[in-house]
Amino acid sequence: MSRLDSFIRRLEAQRACLDHAAELIAGLVGPMLELGLGNGRTYDHLRELFPDRDIYVCERRVAAHPDCIPPADKLLLGDMFETLPAAREMLGGKVVLAHFDAGTGDAASNRKLAAGLRPLIVPLLCPGGVLATQQAMDGAGLMPIPLPNGVAEGRYHLYRA
Ligand SMILES: C[S@@+](CC[C@H](N)C(=O)[O-])C[C@H]1O[C@@H](n2cnc3c(N)ncnc32)[C@H](O)[C@@H]1O
Questions:
Q1: For residue 140, what is the domain's CATH number?
Q2: Domain extent for 50
Q3: What pTM does this model have?
Q4: I need a labelling partner for 97 at 20 to 30 A (CA). Which of 8, 123, 129, 142 fits?
Q5: Ligand 1 atom with minimal separation from the 40 CA
Q6: Could you tell me the distance, in angstroms and rounded to a whole number, from the CA of residue 104 to the centre of ligand 1?
Q7: Strands 32-35 and 55-59: what pairing?
Q8: pLDDT (tens digit, 9 = 90+) per residue, 65-92?
Q9: Cβ < 6 A, ligand 1 pocket
Q10: What does 67-123 look like in DSSP terms, one character per residue?
């Protein structure tokens, strides 16, 4: 598969998983958490899916498309290893959907980042809340759930808290 095909499939998987997650959490009340603003593409998609929900966004340095910059009171600006523990009082046990997309092209450092942040993300989820992530985050407190049709195993990951 060419790198272009792989890139397109990754983005299709990401969108399919976010759309599926939206159905899974439809009955839950609470905020969303976008972990990695980047260009703001998935944040923008979440805003479209959830126009009436609070979406908190973690990012160490905002460089998103100007239309995709979160309001200051929803931006957790700084390194997630610091901002997530600081957000525990506000968001602990309340997040209905967290989307983790903070990786780079380096698989080993992505695994390390995901493993390091996992214990900071899980306590923020509400019971039944969903985590969508490009990196696997198997372990205590998270139950893997099936991917939507058309998304190859391992390309994206969905978990229920
Ligand atoms: C792949 S990009 C996100 C892409 C974005 N979801 C989109 O669709 O445009 C990853 C982002 O995560 C941020 N990031 C990575 N590690 C971080 C950390 N430890 N704390 C805060 N932000 C981090 C990077 O600065 C980068 O902007």
A1: 3.40.50.150
A2: 3-160
A3: 0.97
A4: 8
A5: 9
A6: 8
A7: parallel
A8: 999 999 999 999 999 999 999 999 999 9
A9: 36-42, 58-61, 79-81, 101-103
A10: GGPPPGGGEEES-HHHHHHHHHHHHTTTEEEEEE----S-HHHHHHHHHHHHHHHGG
